[in-house]
Each structure stands twice: as C-alpha cells, then as structure tokens.
Input
Amino acid sequence: MKTRAERESPPEHVVLGKLTSPYGVKGWLRVYSYTSPMEGILEYDEWVLRHGGGESRYRLSQGRRHGKGLVARLEGVDGRDRAETLAGAEILLPTAELPELPGDDEFYWYQLEGLSVVTTEGVALGRVEYLFETGANDVLVVRGREGESVDARERLLPFLPDEVVREVDLEAGRMIVDWDPAF
Output
C-alpha cells in the first residue's frame, strides 16, 4: 500500500494559525498562532483565510503581541462587524512560500504527517497522524491500522532525532524509530 507521501503531492497550503475573535471596534482580530515562535506568523505579509468553505486573500497591515497572544489587523477589515465574519478562519500560507529549512535533519510537521513508522527491528507501528508540542519536545501521534501494522494502537513517540527517531526518509514515506512496540 502506498503511503500518503507517495500518493499525494505536498499540500498547496499549510495552516499557520487561526483567527479567534474580534479585538476592539476597529477591525482587529485575536490570532492563535501555530508557528514557533508565535510571532513568526506576523512575518508573512499575505494570508489566505479559509472560512465557511471558501478561501480569500488578505494583506496583513499590522500585527503585534498582546498579553499572552497576538492581535492583527487586515487590510479591508475596518470594523468589528467585518472582523466578526472572519472569526474562526484558518490562516494559510502557500507551501511554496515556506522558508527553506537550514538542515537536512529538520522538517515541517506537514512533511512528517502520513509517514509510516517502523522500528529498527522492522516492526510496523502505524502512521504519523499528527504532532503536538509539549515544551520539552514535539510528540508524534502514531496510529496503527489493522493489516498494516503490528496492532491498531495509538502511540505517542517523542520526536527526538538520534535517540528515538533514527531516520526520516520523505521520498520513501517512512520513519525508522528505536521504540519498543510494547509501549
């Protein structure tokens, strides 16, 4: 069976964050950023917003840190009512506009999602469903599938290159890990 990496080309867009709610009366919106650092989302001048089944482009006119989060103002969004219509929109960036990563051992999360995960002993554990951040390290959520892996369990593996993650082969759609299948 082909992996997602073999079946599909890279996604056209990646999700950088989300507009959560209006802030004030002048069209500002609260922003939940998935970038690290969180302010990184403000470095992109143009955002594609996905909301209500459609996509639209907006230029970022201003953005700043506010308390523990971010707020932003988009061109053409001049009042609270207009901002309310955008609340809940995902903020997308064309994949082609992502900065090149500095090393061969660095990856964007979207590149890891869908990879098959196999132990150093050749035991198939499943596929990377998604990742999340814990502060100490990123965590891979690996879900087994009947007939494709040793079992149908969900495993949480720390993304620790050279310790747990031994090899990532994007072209083959595979990740090799040093992990006991019993965990």
